[in-house]
Design brief:
Length: 235
């Protein structure tokens, strides 16, 4: 009787607060999860953090002296990671950002080569964009990472001082030109002898992160910079 009552109560509660998997829409999932078990099991892991040097790592390191570059998952536009990224970026779902961060943190905590990281640095958003969205999704991801992988978050190592217009319609060269002098490092002395990990949602061309790292190396040559994103999308 008690069990029946409990089920009845839960189904009423579910009617008021529907809880669905953000990828497939099923309502069969634990209360504290955003993805159901089958969707979680099908996540497209890259294994970049536990493997050897990756193609993307070599490609980016050829342009900017990054130490490590990696993503936890492949970015497939039909897959669960895409739904979670859309939810945090365009639907105001902050919990999805933390959840993505926890998934990334789980990958990072398995990685021997990432253990030397001293600080998590969320990719900064310009203050105007942040005010419009209400938050920086990269910071939510960094907070999720921290819940799983205990590294300090550095909030003021890098600032975004120029608000660039949307990048998606520009070609690679103009995107790169557009990114020059966008970032500033207000306290270079704080970064000396540190190994910082730039954190973002999706890695595509890496142009924004290159520009950010370039600003860091110019201000403080005596530090290491690595990159970790939740997902990796090929151009
Ligand atoms: Zn699902």
């Amino acid at each position: 009787m008690l069990a029946q009552l409990k089920t009845y109560y839960q189904s009423i509660l579910h009617g008021f607060f529907p809880h669905h998997c953000l990828a497939c829409g099923t309502d069969v999932l634990p209360q504290n999860q955003l993805l159901c078990l089958p969707c979680t099991q099908q996540l497209p892991h890259t294994h970049f953090f536990v493997g050897n040097t990756t193609a993307i790592e070599m490609q980016l390191a050829a342009r900017v002296p990054f130490t490590h570059v990696g993503s936890a998952f492949y970015y497939d536009k039909t897959a669960a990671i895409h739904h979670l990224v859309e939810a945090v970026k365009y639907k105001g779902n902050k919990a999805a950002g933390i959840y993505l961060g926890k998934l990334l943190g789980a990958s990072l905590s398995q990685s021997a080569k990432m253990q030397a990281i001293t600080h998590l640095v969320p990719m900064p958003l310009h203050i105007k964009k942040q005010q419009k969205r209400g938050y920086n999704q990269a910071l939510l991801i960094a907070e999720g990472v921290q819940q799983v992988w205990r590294k300090p978050i550095a909030y003021n190592f890098v600032l975004r001082t120029v608000n660039t217009e949307t990048q998606t319609k520009k070609d690679r060269v103009s995107r790169w030109q557009n990114m020059q002098n966008v970032f500033s490092v207000p306290h270079p002395e704080l970064l000396a002898h540190q190994h910082i990990l730039l954190i973002d949602d999706v890695l595509t061309t890496g142009a924004t992160m290159e520009a950010c790292a370039q600003a860091i190396f110019t201000a403080q040559p005596n530090c290491q910079v690595s990159i970790a994103t939740v997902a990796y999308a090929k151009d």
